[in-house]
Amino acid sequence: MLVLGIESTAHTLGIGIVNGEGQILTETRAVYTPSEGGIHPREAAEHHQKHALAVLQRALEEAQVPLDKIKGIAFSQGPGLPPALRIGAVIARSLAGALKIPLLGVNHCVAHIEQARYFCQAKNPLVAYLSGGNTQITTLETGRYRIFGETLDIALGNMLDMFAREAGLHHPGGPKIEKLAQQSTGDYQELPYTVKGMDLAFSGLLTAAKRLLSKGTRLETVCYSLQETAFAMVAEVVERALAHTRREEVIATGGVAANARLGEMLQIVASEHSASFDSVPLQYAGDNGAMIAYNGLLLLKARKSIPLSESTILPKWRLDQVDIPWEV
Ligand code: AMP
Ligand code: MG
Known about the structure:
Elements: E1 2-7, E2 12-18, E3 24-31, H1 41-63, E4 70-78, H2 82-99, E5 103-107, H3 108-120, E6 126-130, E7 135-141, E8 144-150, H4 156-166, H5 174-182, E9 195-196, E10 199-200, H6 203-214, H7 219-245, E11 249-253, H8 260-272, E12 276-279, H9 289-301
Parallel strand pairs: 1-4, 4-5, 6-11, 11-12
Antiparallel strand pairs: 1-2, 2-3, 6-7, 7-8, 9-10
Helix pairs in contact: 1-2, 3-9, 4-6, 5-7, 6-7, 7-8
């Protein structure tokens, strides 16, 4: 049983194919990088449309499977940028229709989490899902991912990208900020730390970091202080969620999970509560088609394909609105 998955929520047009055990046969992608500024939704969609056929052909060649061996077509139905989402949906509907096989509508956030759970071999972990568009601390409980804490304004990755842009660094900013922070002398400058209950807010931190930079503070120092503050906020919420749920595993996923300092902090928090910690492998931290294919496989096994009439994109589809039909 092979499932093909299509990711197109934001910057990445990704196609992956997994087998019935969830093993990845191929994971190919084309990534749109804006020439300046942040992601422009229409430009991202144009990029995806332009590269779709080549990425699909490459995926099929790499996996060495003929199209007729594929038993389901999965796509990111949301959340994401509407013009970009539409490209993936159109490709998925066309393929599923032409091959006369089930169409599987995947929630992008669930896909990140389930792929991380697969790679980390975690049973029912507390999950820190930290990406360009999402910041959520969550765990699966009675059929849904329940959100313990999340950002009240911008996502952690988005905040890092916006600061980077201000500092003249190209998109994506997270990895560049990480390098610069490593080059700092560890001279922490105080920045606003905002945890409200279990929720987080990053826009005040962003403004203050920009101000610090404009006052002439070394970029390395600001990057270091920004990371220390933002990641400590995340670690605090993870710690409280862990104390509350008594989960024995913590995993991190989403693009920001690639950050070594963040991993170090979450590792400390987890071990203080006798829990294990693991991150999704670097290669799969960001958006990819294989995670959509894998989530599609879970849906196919649970007989949860969708008719064409229910395949409209859901740009605001929240993680905690998704019924999880598979067992953990
Ligand atoms: P995603 O939305 O899951 O594809 O992840 C993209 C986000 O992850 C962007 O905001 C990146 O800046 C961020 N990111 C990628 N690598 C790192 C890193 N090493 N440290 C911090 N953020 C990162
Ligand atoms: Mg993502």
